Amino acid sequence: MRPDHKQLRPLSELARLLGPDAFVTCVDQGLHEEAADPGATVITGITHDSRAVRPGDLYAALPGTRAHGADFAAQAAEAGAAAVLTDPDGYDRAAATRLPVVTVADPRAVLGEVAAWVYGHPADRMLLIGTTGTSGKTTVSYLVESGLRTAGEKTGLIGTVEMRVGGERVDSSLTTPEATDLHGLFAAMLEQDVAATAMEVSSHALALGRVGGTTYDVAVFTNLSQDHLDFHSDLREYFETKAKLFTPGFAKVAVVNRDDRFGRALVDMVAAGGEVPVTTFSSEGDPEADWRAVDVRLGARGSAFRVVGPGGVELDASVGLPGPFNVSNAMAAIVGLVEAGVPVHTAVEGVAAAAGVPGRMQRVEAGQDFTAVVDYSHKPGAIEAVLTSLREVTEGRLTIVVGCGGDRDRSKRPLMGEAAARLADAVVLTDDNPRSEDPLAIIGSMLEGAAKVPRGERARVTVEPDRAGAIALAVDRAGPGDVVVVAGKGHERGQKVLDEVHPFDDTEVLEEAMRRRLAREKG
Ligand SMILES: CC(=O)N[C@H]1[C@@H](OP(=O)(O)OP(=O)(O)OC[C@H]2O[C@@H](n3ccc(=O)[nH]c3=O)[C@H](O)[C@@H]2O)O[C@H](CO)[C@@H](O)[C@@H]1O[C@H](C)C(=O)N[C@@H](C)C(=O)N[C@H](CCC(=O)O)C(=O)O
Ligand SMILES: Nc1ncnc2c1ncn2[C@@H]1O[C@H](COP(=O)(O)OP(=O)(O)OP(=O)(O)O)[C@@H](O)[C@H]1O
To answer: Binding of ATP: at which residues (predicted)?
Structure first.
């Protein structure tokens, strides 16, 4: 989504912004190595994708893992690009278009600043609350947005499930959009009078410069556990990437979960920097936290608790999402809102009023006599949190249907298998976005983890590679009062096989399996 109003930015201004390390060249002016005078060239928008170029755009030709954006410079020029931003490697193909070319050593590193410049620094003109962490980013962002709405703001939301601009819903393909799209989105939000935005900040975004040129009024940290080790070299580097969000260029204030060991390390790191004030929260009774959730009463559909904060604040609160981890998410949102200037009672009211988050601990009803849940847990920490939470609210048997994605962090597969086999009574291992891999090989790695649980403590493990078959199996075996959780896809609507996405909706398949069973039972 882009603003309707076109920007008019002279390219000469960009050359000044980027300073002496940027070369501006224009073959048509006979200038190959000297800084050219980009003269009358005017930029009216920006994109990193040749397929999305609009006339007047600056096309950012970025080096990628599969291609170099410069490979598509001719296509961008044909679509009306006014100039190209690239690195020395992409220069030849960019210059061949005869458009002005801005060459910098690392275009991703400046892309956020450049995109913010193109759109007139829109993020600086709204309240921005960014949330990072391995788990809880989407949930906290939904809760924060609800709090901002309760405070009377027209809101924006940016995250994995969807983006929202005022009341309008926009599909989302990444958790955190690329910098060019992000600043365009902020500008479009301003045009619609959005005054406050809640957004998710992934570690990919921090590593790939997607949030450059964006300063968060409040940056929130939920937790860190193993994930994305296909992208980050190890847990330490993953943590350090997340920690970037809490440095002065990115955050004005930090809100950090003290119950998480990486959260405590982050508190020390930010405090040592001495530039970003930190406020902490705990839902597990840490007396050192600035804000605490006490007297937590867990229920099958949500929790009630008391919020205790600085200056004698103490008030009743609730969250309509089950599990202790959602009390933690609610605290993250409440404290984030308070640090953003929302009165605490409004923050508490907004969080309590939030509707469920699509595909997160979502109950599915078809008249069955057991509890059926769809949840987006697709990493060891989330599987553990979800199974522990569901165990607390059921006397019956707990079954999980779970797989693990192909072409992504392989080291988490045995950990997911182990967590499922340790914490559930029954596990059905199945397929989940195999991409280019053999689903049985992925399941094999999960089985390795499951086998580490001692026999007497291990859940009954069944393998059914066909996901619909696996869901039906779990449904057919469920007894009254049991819980079946279908993990991994949550709000997603497809199964990724090779480069194709085949329609697959866990909620629909689960509903259908339960209806079929009821029909069979009725005779
Ligand atoms: C690992 C990663 O994040 N990769 C991102 C990266 O892709 P890449 O380096 O492979 O790009 P490439 O395909 O080689 O293309 C190079 C350049 O050519 C451009 N291009 C390519 C083809 C074309 O026809 N025209 C064109 O202009 C591309 O836009 C790109 O700028 O740059 C692309 C756009 O510039 C992103 O779309 C792509 O995200 C892919 C789709 C992705 O799946 N990313 C995931 C892992 C991700 O970012 N996830 C996090 C959330 C993680 C979490 O769950 O916490 C997220 O924030 O979404
Ligand atoms: N605070 C938390 N601690 C542990 N697990 C959580 C927490 N919050 C949510 N989860 C689990 O993680 C799943 C994903 O939650 P959510 O979408 O809010 O997190 P996320 O950080 O946005 O995830 P992702 O990066 O995978 O998009 C939930 O469905 C739930 O199983």
So the answer is: 133-139
